[in-house]
Amino acid sequence: xxxxxxxxxxxxxxxxxxxxxxxxxxxxxxxxxxxxxxxxxxxxxxxxxxxxxxxxxxxxxxxxxxxxxxxxxxxxxxxxxxxxxxxxxxxxxxxxxxxxxxxxxxxxxxxxxxxxxxxxxxxxxxxxxxxxxxxxxxxxxxxxxxxxxxxxxxxxxxxxxxxxxxxxxxxxxxxxxxxxxxxxxxxxxxxxxxxxxxxxxxxxxxxxxxxxxxxxxxxxx
Length: 221
Description:
The chain is of the alpha+beta class. It has nine helices and four strands; from the N terminus they run E-H-E-H-E-E-H-H-H-H-H-H-H. The chain has a four-stranded mixed sheet, covered by helices on one side. A hairpin with a 2-residue loop joins strand 3 and strand 4 (about 65). Helix 6 (about 155-170) crosses helix 7. The two termini are about 30 Å apart. This is glutathione transferase. It is an enzyme of class 2 (transferase). It comes from Cyanistes caeruleus. InterPro entries: Glutathione-S-Trfase_C-like, Glutathione-S-Trfase_C_sf, Glutathione_S-Trfase, Glutathione_S-Trfase_N, GST_alpha, GST_C, GST_superfamily, Thioredoxin-like_sf.
């Protein structure tokens, strides 16, 4: 288990995508091992690779890391994306927890039953435009810097960009009322490691499609 981190998950965004974003932003090359069928998951469960019988799982630094937030925390800490002191880290953690909440809504939309999709979409857009994005617009205004926290890139910046781009897939003008977030998006997208991740052919995954949903459900249920 040496060399590049190895990510074990299905070939899609899900809960692994934030981890891909953080590694890419840190300039870390990684490999992926895709679960294609239920037996692939069962094998990992049976050989003791999955502490709680669940993926995502990331092999790195001689460990088999599980639990999305724990993996993201490890990567962010290792690659200096957690701020310069405890107070900055507390702010980053608060912002990121809010982002995970919105991410969960956006990520699960494709898996909603047909009769629930409309309601889920309305709730998701309402939360993005009235609860979460106004907070980050205000943070940028009050902080007055290029980044959400301190004066250097943190995981909060990376995860907010990921969220913005996901939200824009559902509603391209979702940032219309948020000029500082528009500028933030342009700025963070232009950081070399992130710019590279946003190019075609990178390990960034596309939005989930209907046919992917059925495949994922077969692996996990």
